[in-house]
Amino acid sequence: MSYFDEMGAEDDLRDPYETYSAWLRQQDNEALIRKHHDAERVFRRTGITFAVYGQDEAEERLIPFDIVPRIISAREWRRLSQGIEQRVVAINAFLEDIYSKQEIIRAGVLPESIIAGNAAFLPEMMNFRPPQGVYTHIIGTDIVRTGPDKFYVLEDNARTPSGVSYMLENRSAMIRLFPELFRANRIKNVENYPDLLRQSLESVAPPACSGKPTVAVLTPGIYNSAYFEHAFLADNMGVDLVEGSDLQVSGGRICMRTTQGMKPIDVIYRRVDDAFLDPLTFNPDSMLGVPGIMDVYRNGGITIANAPGTGIADDKALYTYMPDIVKFYTGSKPLLENVPTWRCVEKDSLAHVLDNLQDLVVKEVHGSGGYGMLIGPTATKEEREAFAAKLRKHPENYIAQPTLSLSTCPVFTEQGLAPRHVDLRPFVLMGGDKVRIVPGGLTRVALKEGSLVVNSSQGGGTKDTWVLNDD
């Protein structure tokens, strides 16, 4: 299978990489090896790790960082950002509709079963409109590329998308290691993301807020796999990082303990899953959330970002309807296409998938992180047969997609550059005033030769993503 190389061959270099390639040809390989090890030391000293559950020998891992940037032209980014904005606006409109009049179901665009039987749908959110009508304050849209102008949305992350801290630390490391590259290239800024995030969160303050909004980040605690990111974002926004035990309901508000007494919070950026957010409404055994927070929320005393119940937009079965959802709410065809997808719950689709497992990628509709999936071309006959049994037993739990010829970007190895498959997670902020999209995002890279799995929990790494500025 042939793959689109985003840098291009040495004798047919693509325009975005010209300046970088000219610089690279002048570099000594031994010096680059030292820079590569310097980057490792920087990340280890900073404490940029993630937890891998169920693997005692490696509870905390360093996410591998590649020193060769991924470079996107201004023209490519304009097209991508327009499509991303259209999609996230449609997702927010869908959530507002599905928790109120459900007109998309009445119109026959979406089957009622995909909502009614979905564990991520929260009846507690019915007929409640969050402040400013914003459900998805922070979204990560995963995008793959197969050719010069062929971009596809692989999945939507509307619940609690992670990875933005790695995007920011990648940029910080590159500026530190290669300052001359930033003088020679006009690269759009991502370092202001924490300021944009805070502005976006402040713009959706609840009715009870009077004055400058107080924002806090709610974390499950130090044992969460993304705790580094929670602390990083709170610190860089200049807001408090709190746990459920730090908060309580007082006077119809959510208040946090401070040295000056209890202080009301206006906006909580929560990194706690729905089920654990409020033991009085959801899981009664939860020790991570705040008892009574949902009542305060419904009464206008707090804004929760992202809103409870947004996880239904992450469902991979719902993903198959996204082109129809975009058109229903925006009146236009999607600017960014979905990857062609078979719904295994449909009899004909299931038959096709079972007959072609060796060529397909099969995913759990509620899966994430690269788990619970089958990559047909790299699976053994025994693995495919075992997965086929799962499909026959619970076809409603799976969707299938073709094995895409994902684009590659060069990574640095001690033997020289080598192509590896990549995807892209741009981060979108939806406030009460406007949509903000950070130029670029987090490029994840499958560091194992031939692998298509980019997730850090599955051995993937990350790169700095440059969007060139032609202004």
UniProtKB/TrEMBL annotation:
This is Circularly permuted ATP-grasp type 2 domain-containing protein. It comes from Notoacmeibacter marinus. Residues 69-446 form the Circularly permuted ATP-grasp type domain.
